Amino acid sequence: MQCGSNPRKNHDPFDMKVFKRGPGTKDNPNLIPSHLEKRMIGCICEEDQTHINWMWLHRGDPKRCECGYWFKIVDAKPL
């Protein structure tokens, strides 16, 4: 068995991977997994942008980025 080939192992326990944005509308926000009540996220508003727009998300309170995309915290899978 090679290192990292265990399918049950969580290779991203701190949810640090980059997500591709979906529609990101108010009715269909981008879902951000979290074990906590709040989480800091970064939005790369445009593909060739050289900075990240950081913001706090709070559970139960969807938030709109300056670029117009919406984000919402959902329950993360157990570790």
UniProtKB/TrEMBL annotation:
One of its GO terms (molecular function) is metal ion binding. GO terms for biological process: mitochondrial electron transport, cytochrome c to oxygen. InterPro entries: Cyt_c_oxidase_su5b, Cyt_c_oxidase_su5b_sf. Pfam families: COX5B. Residues 1-30 are annotated as: Disordered. Keywords: Metal-binding, Zinc. Residues 9-18 have a biased composition (Basic and acidic residues). Signal peptide: none annotated. SUPFAM superfamilies: Rubredoxin-like (SSF57802). GO terms for cellular component: mitochondrial envelope; respiratory chain complex IV. This is Uncharacterized protein.
